[in-house]
Amino acid sequence: MSQLLSIKEASRWASDYLKKQVTTSNISYLIQYGRIESRSDNGKTLIFQKDLKEYYESYYQTKENRWKNDLGDDLNWNLSFSEFTEAETTKHVHRLHPYKGKFIPQLVEYFLDSHKDDFKKEIYFRPGDIILDPFCGSGTALVQANELGIHAIGVDISSFNSLISNVKIKKHNIPQIWDALRNISSGLRSFQIEKNNVSFEIELLERLKDFNQEYFPSPQFKRDVRNGKINEQEYTSQKEIEFLKIFNALVDEYRIDILQKESDNFIDKWYIQPVREEIDFVFEQLKRIENNLVKEVLTIILSRTVRSCRATTHSDLASLKEPVTKTYYCRKHGKICKPLFSIYSWWERYGKDTIKRLEQFNKVRTDTFQRCLTGDSRTINIFAELTYKNPNFGKLAEKQKIKGIFSSPPYVGLIDYHEQHAYSYDLFGFERQDQLEIGPLSKGQGKDAQETYSKGIAEVLLNSKKYFQKDYDVFLVANDKYNLYPKIADLASMKIVNQYKRPVLNRVERDRSAYSEIIFHLKEK
To answer: Is the peptide bond before 217 cis (omega within 30 degrees of 0)?
Structure first.
């Protein structure tokens, strides 16, 4: 008879078995989503150790072999960083704001730090060096450089990306941020008193709770769907219609205006009217803050909040489809869910989380320079712009020069980087430079797009070389399915001296198939 374990005991057993941290939340997730069965004993949830072992043997122990079968034996599994938990791969300020397509900090650290191993046989960067990330994105390379005592310059065409990066690496007055956060939260609460949306949402949640407990019991419903006992499409369509009658009655009772009158831009289209009113209220309060550093931090908190409050299904947050303005069956959660009618809980949660992460980073940060510049990496005068923004850092860079690059260029035809944060551009009025993006989704992945992309990346490298030391090292992370990087290296008068093929785990997209990327190591030809 297999041993029965409590959730806490299962967490300890799984952590020891997998040689990595498995939290009680991880175990609860497996139960909730029907991956393993559970039983109740006097109100205590228990699971069989045998079931847990079989699950991990099926999905984890063979994962490396399955991925190598799909992607080739040259896959460097050490660079999967599978031993790190999500909390470690999103540590401190790395999760200050969502950003599509960023690499994990452990990958940056692997190539920047001073260790050697069977794969990394040289030390490329040392404390006191200056590195460059010409596709800075959300600033992962800058943050990790700071941790390691390395100076770093970032460049990004997006002014919003630059804001995210610079907020992460700047030193902040935490008490002042707390005060501003509390003042706006208090004001938002007072603003809500005059509205019906809070009372409406409270009653809606109560009705949803009762309805879901009766018709979508967890985890039994998902298990029945998985085992074919319930036709998910037919059953859920019927229940959607049933609950929609309750929802519409509540909307009428509380006189809730669902739709905005205009639909000219992203903010107009993707937010329910009560949410839009709260967003506008907080934004007006934010504009009154005189301390620019505090204002920048709260701008990031509001942007993160606004992103989470879009009128969309829980499963479509990464790739929006159509606005959702009524209750719906949620495949992700296996029950009837609703759009948001208030931003308050997210504003509060993200405010506290941001301050906590800034405090955590303060404990590990070093006294080094980091700065993200807004500009086109193909043409920007890096040292002149850096000196303008930070004279002391500019002086050091002029004297010392840049030791090399660690960066992840955009992939050809994959993401429109401005559009992924369209809500913030509309709300805050950041200047958009979509036309200067290299390899945007809107241009596709055809031959012409590949040629333009290759030329653009090479021009970035050629411009960057003007500011390098003689013996430089360039590391570029790319999924080069079109084999463009040999040509890019040649156009930039560089040569590829090494390649590291790594599996990419924990992708947020729905397609979780085996996927790899290459870290290209380039030097002067």
So the answer is: no
